[in-house]
Amino acid sequence: MTDPQNFYAEVGGAPVFEKLVSRFYQEVAADDVLLPLYPEKDLGPAEVRLRMFLEQYWGGPRTYSEQRGHPRLRMRHNPFKVGPIERDAWLRCMRIAVDEAGFDDAHREQIWQYMTYAAASMQNSDF
Ligand code: HEM
Question: Among 47, 58, 77, 96, which residue's Cβ finds the most Cβ atoms within 10 Å?
């Protein structure tokens, strides 16, 4: 398994993360469970924040923390109910994005493992 710090460079850097996150938000925009959670009508700023966060996590530029500070992602999700339905909707959108991002099998498996773990850890409601 790749060290997450090398992942960004190995998979092709910025254009790959751009494609991944824009495909994810294309699905969110059409999702009846997720879309109502977003406080802003324009999903653009949320897309930029998720892209910066993922780039940083996977060894790319640290712009997320420069602009947003410590991620504290669980805390930042507290205003939104994230139960099993929201988690599964998020993963459904992310599955499509990951499958279409052009990763080789090993990198796809690695980032998918992370997404399923991260989505479960963001849950803050049992229903
Ligand atoms: C922000 C929903 C999981 C990363 C948000 C926002 C919503 C949301 C509604 C606010 C949009 C905004 O930034 O304006 C959800 C739901 C999830 C989920 C329903 C279901 C499990 C995740 C996961 C990650 C993540 C697994 C990371 C791998 C982020 C980031 C932000 C964010 C980085 C922006 C935080 C900030 O800097 O303010 N999410 N999220 N989310 N989410 Fe999630």
Answer: 58
50 lines ligand 1 (CB under 6 A): yes
* Spacing, Cα 50 to ligand 1 middle (Å): 7
Domains of the chain: 4-121 (1.10.490.10)
Please name the residue that has the structure tokens 């507290």.
78
Cα 107 to middle of ligand 1, angstroms: 22
Residues of the chain with pLDDT > 90, as a percent, come to: 96
Average pLDDT on 97-108 reads 98
Q: What is the ipTM of this complex?
A: 0.95
